[in-house]
């Protein structure tokens, strides 16, 4: 029973670690001391030309973003207006190519592991701890950002901006997750109903 608890705990920790690496991250900024309750109607500006031609510059991605955004904005109590809206929203989609170090596997060598009879103990082979890790190269990856800005129509100035970011491994899945990212972005809006 004790082995099962230890093994389950280690498996849970590894699962949570990998889950944490694949989550959305949100950042926001706003004009301080701005009364966001004054805005009652909203409209849209054209999206800023996307810097991610292969990912989010297609009709499905645009539609996913707009449907999710309109739903979230209306939950905030704003009403869509084509004629003189109080606040205008726009978005930009960006996908950056990045790279990170790849390290040798630190789990080969001495350390804790399961022995030949399934018992925990000290020894050589694959296990937890022990060994040294060193850089062995670089790997490329893509990181996507959806940025939403709110522009005060009378002042013609950005008053709020929020960004949702996530590592992208599969373009189709990334497009299907856009509504989730947009919902998270609008949770950052300064006024909540």
From TrEMBL:
Pfam families assigned: DUF4136
Annotated DUF4136 domain residues: 33-190
Family matches, as PROSITE patterns: PROKAR_LIPOPROTEIN
Top-level taxon of the source organism: Bacteria
Keywords: Signal
TM region positions: none
Gene3D superfamilies: 3.30.160.670
Annotated signal sequence range: 1-19
Protein name (database record): DUF4136 domain-containing protein
Organism, scientific name: Sphingobacterium corticis
């Amino acid at each position: 029973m004790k082995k099962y608890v230890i093994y389950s705990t280690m498996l849970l920790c590894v699962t949570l670690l990998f889950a944490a690496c694949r989550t959305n991250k949100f950042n926001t900024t706003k004009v301080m001391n701005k009364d966001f309750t004054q805005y009652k109607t909203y409209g849209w500006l054209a999206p800023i030309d996307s810097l991610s031609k292969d990912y989010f510059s297609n009709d499905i991605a645009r539609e996913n973003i707009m449907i999710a955004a309109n739903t979230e904005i209306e939950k905030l109590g704003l009403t869509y207006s084509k004629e003189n809206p109080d606040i205008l929203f726009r978005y930009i989609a960006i996908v950056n190519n990045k790279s990170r170090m790849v390290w040798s596997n630190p789990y080969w060598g001495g350390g804790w592991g399961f022995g030949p009879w399934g018992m925990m103990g000290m020894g050589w082979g694959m296990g937890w701890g022990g060994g040294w890790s060193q850089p062995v190269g670089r790997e490329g990856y893509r990181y996507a950002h959806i940025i939403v800005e709110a522009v005060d129509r009378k002042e013609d100035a950005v008053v709020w901006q929020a960004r949702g970011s996530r590592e992208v491994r599969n373009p189709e899945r990334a497009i299907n997750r856009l509504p989730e990212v947009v919902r998270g972005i609008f949770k950052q809006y300064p006024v909540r109903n």
